[in-house]
């Protein structure tokens, strides 16, 4: 029943994203409209896929670092992606796929660095080391980004900042296909690790006694979740709070079993980002808000509520 | 030392004025104007060392015949060519007070923005007079010409340049029947709205900016809004100063094909400083834009 409900909401979010827009397309013309086919539909689908990727990635990372505050961007990926994108923009390499590829490269580089830090002294991805390493790498990349932005010319500066806030302004079918081709591998890898992740929630030692290959699971989950985030950030910029709040909201309904949590987080994240993007496109039409601002406006109050619950416990 | 003395004089003058004592013969500021931030700017003598913190005012100063008094400019001031020989004091938007002060200016001309207002305040504390000017439309620059020329004590030049610019601003060319959209960025797509010089240029050239209803100078919109507003020609802005730059690469992206002007390959690419800000060359900017739009139709 709850699956049916979530599926229904997901379909509704996608339908709304296609039916609503800054301009009026009559309902009867939706199927034939060029605007719907080449702009709204790929944009809605891309928003859903990116939201789903961030939701799953957040759920997975919260599980391996066993920290409710973990989100896909806590581990330095956003800093790396932002640095890559801003470098490309500052170097005037803005055509075609240059910015997404640079962002992806930046995110992967940051991921590699944090991963390396996580292995320091045979630590085997100690959650505390991972989080500290992520924050440190993110801060370092952020400092470099700010340095470049402050030295770049005024227009580029503004545009780079807009990129960092995230959005689907350049969504097209080709970006949808790229994401579609890219998502299955990390998603399958995470789903395969669902059972050991449940055990890991008990602590690393109990999980080991119960037969989980803890080190391998952590490596696999960390890499897969980071890859998900990296591809999301490369096509849409940094969309915050989705990976933080969606897993918590879904855990409240679906519990802590990752086999159910992952699909739920995918759908939940997709719904949130698709709706946020629809709002971003329509509330100030014909102008548009960066979608990262909308998710933050929804996410921050939700986050505050979450914290109140935890402290009340 | 001299500046401190001047300040004392000013204080004294205020006291005397309060006492109603007229006919006092001390040194009074001869040149006083009220700038666009509503600040009174007064100079005891015509400005001889001027730092200009925007390309528009740098060009204007040269047009006013005061180019030899410009002792500092921004990195972006590239017109006229002589301007590039003047030392740069930085990028102008977030002014480096120390670099400006090092040029020992007796007048600093700034663009009206929050950061620049703060800079003007800091300059005042160093006893450097700062003139804050709105420079968004041709009328603003005409007023700027008059205010600056008061302070360089060459009002004739200022008034005549202002007249020329106002005449350009008041006589739009006949309508071309062409609608256009100015696109300055692709991801997210950013277009130019009403409160901008480019919008003014478009209407003076006889074209209609399809985003004229948007009050802001520029704004993010979605591709579909551009597609539905259906401009005949897409006008983009090139960084380079070359005469006929290529359209930007993003117009080849599939999503942009939803826009008719992109499909029909109707682009005008504006390069160089001629279109970037209001200037005494507005007349040629209008003519050139009109010609390019006709050519692209």
Name the beta content range of chain B: 15-25%
Instruction: Just give the CATH class of chain A.
Output: Mainly Alpha
Helix segment tally of chain A: 14
- In this structure, how is the largest beta sheet of chain B organized? 6 strands, mixed
Straight-line N-to-C gap of chain B = 64 Å
Q: Using the 3D structure, state the CATH architecture of the largest domain in chain B.
A: 3-Layer(aba) Sandwich
Oligomer: heterodimer
State the CATH topology of chain A.
ABC transporter involved in vitamin B12 uptake, BtuC
State the total count of DSSP E strands of chain A.
0
Supply the CATH superfamily name of the largest domain in chain B: Nitrogenase molybdenum iron protein domain
Mean pLDDT of chain B: 86
Order of H and E elements of chain B: HEEEHEHEHEHHEEHEEHEHEH
SSE sequence of chain A, one letter per element: HHHHHHHHHHHHHH
Roughly how much helix do the residues of chain B carry, as a percent range? Answer: 25-40%
Percent of residues of chain A in beta strands?
under 5%
Shape of chain A: globular
Helix amount of chain A: over 70%
What would the average pLDDT of chain A be, to the nearest integer? 86
CATH architecture of chain A: Orthogonal Bundle
